[in-house]
Write a structure and sequence with these properties.
Tetrahydropterin Synthase, Chain A, four-stranded antiparallel beta sheet, three-stranded antiparallel beta sheet
Length: 301
């Protein structure tokens, strides 16, 4: 009786272990490859609960999300013979788990993901060297970086194709440069050269500004002279017209009362001459100037 209970308990334990080994789950962020004696016999792409042959088959799970890998820092030479320290990263994902496993499995490696990352890093570095070698340093730093990165991404996907054109099961989604600097030993000389170029450009701008300033000032002086000459001419015209009108008025007044006109003009002259109690010495011929002094009524008649 005890032997039967022991056998039943052992059978139950084996059945439970077999059932546990026969069932497996696949998460929604994963895909699964079923291996039988080390060879892939199936793949599961949808999440859920699945069954396999216990103790004969095993399951490898792969992440199907977007993954990021930092490429090793490397020195790259640009088209204008500048060496740059480039630090980049790549975003990638597994698009075909079965092909990915076949391409990157290795008996000497503990993880096909690590093998894929190493291969991916080598490809990205090669593409960066090839592509950046076609551009000058200023393009790499600012102007053409997006175009360069698109070319690196496309070239990396082409290089990752297996022999015969078969896909490697992974796809490079995006490649970006985190840092692109000059080596420390070159930074000082490049800085001095850039400073000299900027000083030269600044001197050129200042010279052009001074030249334009002189032209503006010369034009302003010319316009000033023209405006003053025009104003002087207009002033003389107005003054001439006023003098002519005044002369006409004086002539008309003289013609109406010549004696009175001469008398008022003489009074104005006397007022100006004797304003400061001045002493006048007149010759006999000039005595007519004082003809209105002491003039009696009979003389006036």
């Amino acid at each position: 009786m005890n032997n039967k209970l022991s056998l039943a308990f052992a059978a139950l334990v084996v059945a439970m272990l077999g059932l546990a080994n026969a069932l497996y789950t696949v998460d929604q962020t994963q895909s699964a490859i079923i291996l039988q004696f080390g060879e892939p016999v199936g793949v599961r792409l949808e999440p859920g609960l699945y069954a396999k042959l216990p103790f004969i088959q095993n399951v490898i799970r792969l992440d199907n999300r977007l993954m990021e890998y930092d490429v090793a820092t490397t020195i790259i030479y640009t088209k204008d013979k500048k060496n740059m320290v480039v630090d980049a990263y790549v975003r990638w994902r597994i698009v075909d788990p079965l092909l990915f496993y076949k391409r990157f499995k290795s008996d000497n490696s503990y993880s096909i993901i690590e093998d894929a990352k190493r291969r991916l890093g080598d490809v990205i570095i090669g593409e960066l060297k090839s592509e950046l070698g076609l551009h000058i340093m200023s393009d790499v730093i600012s102007q053409s970086r997006d175009t360069i990165m698109e070319s690196v991404t496309g070239g990396s996907n082409r290089k990752l194709l297996a022999e015969g054109g078969e896909s490697s099961g992974l796809a490079v989604v995006d490649t970006r440069i985190k840092r692109a600097d000059l080596p420390p030993e070159n930074q000082r000389s490049v800085y001095e050269r850039m400073k000299a170029e900027r000083d030269q450009q600044a001197t050129k701008y200042r010279s052009e500004g001074q030249m334009r300033g002189q032209k503006i000032r010369a034009d302003a002086d010319r316009q000033k002279e023209v405006i003053l000459a025009e104003a002087q001419r207009t002033s003389q015209e107005i003054q001439g017209e006023a003098d002519a009108k005044a002369a006409a008025i004086y002539a008309e007044a003289f013609s109406l009362a010549p004696e009175f006109y001469a008398f008022t003009r003489s009074l104005e002259s006397y007022q100006a001459a004797f304003r400061n109690r001045s002493t006048l010495v007149l010759s006999p011929e000039a005595m007519d100037y004082l003809k209105y002094f002491g003039r009696n009524t009979e003389a006036a008649k």
